[in-house]
Design a protein that fits this description.
The complex is a heterotrimer of chains A (302), B (317) and C (536). Chain A has one domain: MetI-like (MetI-like fold), CATH 1.10.3720.10. Chain A is 67% helix and 0% strand. In chain A, helix 2 crosses helix 10, helix 4 packs antiparallel against helix 6 and helix 6 runs antiparallel to helix 8. Chain B is mainly α and 317 residues long. Chain B starts with a helix and ends in a 7-residue tail after the last helix. Helices cover 32% and strands 20% of the residues of chain C. In chain C, helix 10 runs antiparallel to helix 12, helix 16 packs antiparallel against helix 17 and helix 17 runs antiparallel to helix 18. The longest helix of chain C is centred in the N-terminal third of the chain and has 19 residues. The relative contact order of chain C is 0.16. The N terminus of chain C is likely disordered. The chains are: A mainly alpha (302), B mainly alpha (317), C alpha+beta (536).
């Protein structure tokens, strides 16, 4: 059993690369069928879909202006007339801010993982497929980043570059490239050893063709499963950075920042102050459950 | 075995070099002027220039790097710009405090995780398994810094049971193992242990489940071993994986306690790092990050070596 | 709300009497939660802004000129400290003679005299001297811009010379502290070692400095001013940058006193029996506009419109009443307030009219962009406050936006005038740094005089008004106390009538303390006196 040590694996869900079997025809249909029979994953998917679509289409929902302040209606409790979820410390509509907040929070969670998936995934596949010194070079560079605990790396990077959404995105992307790269490298290395890859190579297919036709289909599943498990980590990390004052800047609605600015109101209206935390929690747990569901459906061994 | 450990250690040298380069580069990524952190709002330019010269920020970057590396290698991390105290002593005292917290949080998380994970894997009813899975999921999904604040409000402010901040009582210096100090540790330990609890419970549960499905367990049962003896064998086999995850989690706690330390004003490396970032105190930022990264590297190495000792089939690198 | 103070004043009076009559007896330990993230520098000139001066300056050290912090009902003014009297030389007002106090000893037992004064001035002004400390220099240089030379006349007399005639020079000297040369020798001539075991002449001596954790002070029984020998045995100071941590620590009984409680936590603190102590003090939270060509602010109607657009009462509500609505750079009732004819108040209709007169409309709005910080000493609650002001300005027809940055970044930003690269790049035409208006130099000269453009001073917007310069100079060259106050009032009336800044708020310096703290008098000052306090 080859044990990887994924240092960033806050969620502890990295596919450890054991017992990877070649993907057969009809594999994706069976994945879909299995997902269809898994109510937990379906419910989580539906909740996420709801959060994502309401965030994306927030301007079309006829919500109150999330930036409109009013000193008269500060910290209204939940269920106040016209303010379903109350108002924040500047009298802004909480419901609207929570929906709008989803835009940035989800964006901060998904974008770095997607970017890291693209960069780290390509690097990892290249390293795994090429082997030799290319592998050596790429993986040793990744080792340097691996020498930092993930939170430390994210905080040092955004601490150095200064507060702001762009810097947080950059820092988080850098944090996620090495683990994705490592997982991709390990699964690709295994696939490379399969007979059909040797056969394709023997028939004179080019490296790119082999990767595209034979490797990608086999490695994408495990890599994607791993990446979805990182989204919840990214959301919590981004919220933590905002909480420290290193992430998104006010007055932008973002859940981590809202938690931070509502912190004092916790004595006045504790339930209200807890709402952004609840949103982070719901989103994060849905991503985690969905990642589990996908893993089970794709039969990636944990 | 010794040879293996030695080989892994040598292999760390180029990585360590890369780490130092990254640490150095990272603090210079920043916009703005480090000197601005130590002068008051109305200081005139001549003063700013004088200080710049005094601290050597006027030298070119590669020279600054080599100078920094040279002194760092002798164990001298320079002096803090903000306080003028040696970085080495600043980091050392803070590091000790962080380690104490990380150890207690890891211990709490690991013992609970072993219990919960094993219970779930052995569970006859789905309810127990589901419950444990839920606990572990909550652990990795809850924003722990927010949980910390909630804990303070409930247990310190409203119930008045535990102190909300600090390392220990006001008349003591440094950490000691006595009841007042333990009281100060309870809330930060709980808040810090949530994530590793979630991660390790999942790992323990999955690993033990795997092993229980393996053929040798059936063989052991066939041999007529009782449940307790089998559990011993199962745990022994699960140990390498669980150990690896625990080591990494401990490392992540040491590097990642910044949020918890900020909430509890715990004078550890996270607290130090936070104030260094906002004061743009470059030597402290570099020193802390470097020490933490090296510690993390050594911890990874140790975990690797121990794992290999427990199960010689695993060899990497 | 002010009840504890009046009781406190009476108690303080009694206590002073008691202390002079009786030997010191145990009056307990006071534990304070500061907003700073670290212990302020203890070597002499503290860092961490005026909070550093408050807790590691006037506690451990004395200046030649101290502040009288014993009264809550009038603005704090200077009084003799390590100097007993001072006066400019007859016929040559650039030269000042200070008579030093005799019989003063440092905490380490060494004596204070003219040599010590010269040694300390060399410490910050003479980079050739062995005791030169650039860190202390950085903290004090901008406070003494006119001091050029100094010499000892005899053991207890010194002469200080200023670059220009400056009748207000004694105020400058209230920021210069005196550390013990003997102690510096003892600590191997290393200021970093001195920081851990400092020695001053102040009412409190330092027992222990635990970096980032706490500063322990205790009573200096041999303090020269017998009326100000502390009643307390000990004062412990804790750095607690998080407002939520401070609130929790006070409510849980871990500290007895916290600086700047968050407004929303105040009801809970009161419910927990804590006293909220406030007082006005010379603080000004305003927008300093760009006065260079092309800036909309050069039109007085725009400046007046902005001043009339802001609903300060609403802002006060946001801050839980912890502010005074500005009507100028100093608050009404301040001796320098004068009698401006422009009344700064909330009148959005008048503001709209002024903008229309200035040629602006819904399609052509005056664009303003203010550089603001996320936090900082004296910045109050910069983000929500600025968001609220933005809302007000836009409601009358401004197009207001912000350049948000960290506190230190904003401070650096202010080191360059509006014409510098930083401001050009950000496209800002205003800056929001709260200013201490403690003395006439920091209140007017450095901010409004055309010669004091950064880096020399803090006239960031390059305001140039010959008449104003003349008024300010007049205040700084008049040696008669009443005439000086009158001149300063004229300066203030003039800048309000010209609406040179957008005046918004004065902080009330709230602090929360446990009912066990007795005898505290909150002076109208950035600094406070801890000596009369007792713990019950």
């Amino acid at each position: 059993m080859a044990i990887q040590s994924p240092s960033l694996d806050i969620a502890g869900t990295a596919p450890l690369g054991a017992a990877l079997t070649p993907v057969s025809r009809g594999y994706w249909q069976s994945v879909r069928r299995r997902l269809g029979r898994d109510p937990v994953t379906l419910i989580c998917g539906a909740v996420l879909l709801l959060i994502v679509t309401s965030a994306v289409f927030a301007p079309l929902l006829g919500l109150a202006d999330p930036y409109k302040t009013s000193m008269i209606r500060r910290l209204y409790p939940l269920g106040s007339p016209n303010f379903l979820l109350g108002t924040d410390e500047l009298g802004r509509d909480m419901f609207s801010r929570l929906i709008y907040g989803g835009r940035l929070s989800l964006f901060m969670g998904v974008t770095p993982v997607a970017c890291a998936l693209l960069i780290g995934g390509s690097l990892g596949i290249a390293a795994g497929f090429s082997g030799g010194w290319v592998n050596m070079m790429i993986m040793r560079i990744m080792d340097v980043f691996y020498a930092f605990p993930s939170v430390l790396l994210a905080i040092s990077l955004s601490g150095a570059m200064g507060a702001g959404a762009e810097n947080t995105l950059l820092a988080l992307t850098l944090v996620f490239i090495p683990p994705i790269c490592r997982v991709s490298e390990s699964v690709t290395t295994q696939v490379r050893g399969f007979d059909f890859v040797d056969a394709a190579r023997a028939s004179g297919a080019g490296a790119l063709t082999i990767v595209r036709v034979h490797v990608l289909g086999n490695v994408l599943g495990p890599i994607l499963v791993y990446a979805t498990s990182l989204i919840s980590v990214a959301i919590i990390l981004a919220a933590g950075l905002s909480f420290l004052g290193l992430g998104v800047k006010p007055p932008e609605p973002e859940w981590g920042l809202m938690l931070n600015t509502l912190r004092q109101a916790i004595y006045v209206n504790p339930v209200l102050a807890a709402l952004p935390g609840v949103m982070i929690f719901i989103t994060s747990i849905c991503f985690n459950l969905m990642s589990d569901g996908l893993r089970a459906a794709m039969d990636v061994k944990a | 075995m010794l040879l293996y450990a030695l080989r892994r250690l040598i292999y760390l040298v180029p990585v360590a070099f890369g780490v130092s380069l990254l640490v150095f580069a990272l603090v210079h990524l920043a916009p703005g002027d480090p000197i601005s952190a130590i002068v008051p709002p109305d200081a005139p330019q001549e003063v700013v220039d004088k200080l710049k010269e005094y601290y050597g920020f006027d030298k070119p970057l590669p020279v600054q790097y080599l100078r920094w590396l040279a002194v760092t290698l002798t164990g001298d991390f320079g002096t803090s710009i903000g306080t003028g105290r040696p970085v080495a002593t600043e980091v050392a005292s803070a590091f000790g405090n962080t380690i104490i917290l990380a150890i207690s949080a890891t211990t709490l998380a690991f013992s609970l995780a072993i219990f919960l994970g094993t219970a779930a894997a052995y569970a006859k009813t789905r309810i127990v398994d589901r419950l444990v899975t839920l606990i572990s999921l909550v652990g990795v999904s809850v924003p722990h810094f927010w949980l910390a604040i909630v804990l303070v409000i409930i247990f310190s402010v409203e119930l008045g049971m535990l102190p909300p901040m600090g390392l220990g009582p006001e008349n003591a210096t440094g950490w000691r193992l006595d009841w007042p100090h333990i009281q100060h540790m309870i809330l930060p330990t709980i808040a810090l242990s949530v994530i590793p609890l979630g991660v390790m419970t999942r790992t323990v549960r999955a690993t033990i489940k795997d092993i229980l499905n393996a053929e040798f367990v059936t063989a052991l049962q066939a041999k007529g071993m009782n449940d307790r003896q089998i559990l011993f064998h199962v745990l022994k086999n699960a140990a390498p994986t669980c150990l690896a995850v625990m080591g990494l989690q401990a490392g992540n706690l040491i590097g990642g306690s910044i949020l918890i330390e900020t909430v509890f004003a715990w004078p550890g490396t996270g607290f130090l790092l936070n104030s260094a970032i906002f004061r743009r105190d470059l030597p402290i930022l570099q020193g802390t990050t470097l020490v933490l990264a090296f510690f993390f590297m050594m911890l990874n190495l140790t975990v690797d070596v121990i794992q290999t000792m427990v199960d010689p089939r695993i060899k990497r690198g | 709300m002010f009840k504890p103070i009046s009781v406190a004043v009476a108690a303080a009076g009694l206590a002073v009497f008691a202390a002079s009559a009786m030997p010191a007896f145990s009056q307990g330990t006071l534990r304070i939660g500061m907003t700073a993230a670290d212990i302020p520098l203890t070597t002499g000139q503290p860092d961490q802004g005026f909070e550093g001066f408050r807790f590691a300056g006037y506690t451990i050290y004395d200046a030649l000129v101290n502040w009288d912090l014993s009264k809550a009902d009038t603005i704090a003014d200077i009084r003799p400290g390590l100097a007993t009297e001072w006066a400019p030389v007859e016929g040559d007002p650039k030269r000042w003679v200070f008579k030093l106090r005799q019989g003063v000893t440092f905490h380490d037992g060494s004596a204070f005299d003219a040599d010590v004064v010269i040694w300390n001035l060399d410490k910050v002004l003479n980079d050739k001297s062995p005791q030169f400390d650039p860190k202390q220099l950085a903290q004090v240089r901008a406070r003494i811009p006119t001091l050029v030379s100094y010499r000892a006349i005899d053991k207890y007399t010194i002469e200080l010379t200023t670059k220009v005639v400056n009748s207000l020079f004694p105020y400058d000297m209230s920021y210069v502290f005196f550390s013990s040369p003997t102690n510096w020798e003892k600590q191997a001539k290393d200021w970093n070692k001195v920081a851990l075991q400092p020695s001053g002449t102040g009412p409190f001596k330092v027992d222990r400095v635990v970096p980032r954790e706490r500063l322990e002070l205790s009573r200096f029984a041999d303090y020269w001013d017998k009326a100000r020998v502390p009643k307390l045995d000990k004062v412990l100071l804790f750095p607690m940058p998080e407002a939520a941590t401070r609130t929790a620590a006070l409510l849980a009984g871990q500290v007895d006193w916290i600086e700047v409680p968050a407004p929303d936590a105040i009801p809970r603190l009161k419910q927990g029996g804590m006293a909220i102590v406030t007082n006005k003090y010379p603080h000004n939270w305003a927008y300093q506009p760009s006065m260079v060509e092309g800036s909309p602010w050069t039109d007085i109607r725009v400046r007046k419109a902005a001043n009339l657009a802001i609903d300060r009462a609403g802002l006060k509500k946001l801050l839980g009443d912890m502010m005074i609505e500005s009507k100028g750079a100093v608050y009404p009732g301040h001796p320098w307030f004068g009698s401006p004819s422009f009344d700064i108040k909330y009148d959005p209709e008048a503001a709209k009219k002024l903008l229309a007169e200035a040629g602006y409309s819904a399609t052509k709005k005056p664009k303003i962009k203010i550089a603001i910080s996320t936090s900082g000493s004296g910045q109050m609650l910069p983000l929500p406050m600025n968001e609220y002001v933005q809302e007000n300005l836009n409601a009358v027809g401004f197009d207001a936006s912000f350049e948000v940055m960290e506190w230190n970044a904003l401070v650096t930003f202010g080191f360059q005038p509006v014409t510098g690269d930083a401001s050009k790049k950000a496209g800002t035409n205003g800056i929001n740094i709260s200013r201490a208006t403690v003395d006439p130099y920091s209140a007017f000269m450095r901010l409004y005089h055309s010669e004091y453009v950064p880096p020399k001073g803090a006239n960031w917007g390059l305001l140039k008004d010959a008449k104003l310069d003349e008024l300010i100079d007049k205040a700084h060259t008049s040696f008669d106390r009443a005439a000086q106050t009158k001149a300063l009032a004229d300066v203030h009336s003039y800048i309000v009538d010209q609406a040179y800044w957008v005046y918004i708020a004065h902080d009330l310096n709230p602090r929360a303390m446990s009912p066990k703290v007795k005898g505290f008098v909150q002076a109208q000052s950035w600094f406070q006196d801890l000596t009369p306090i007792t713990m019950q």
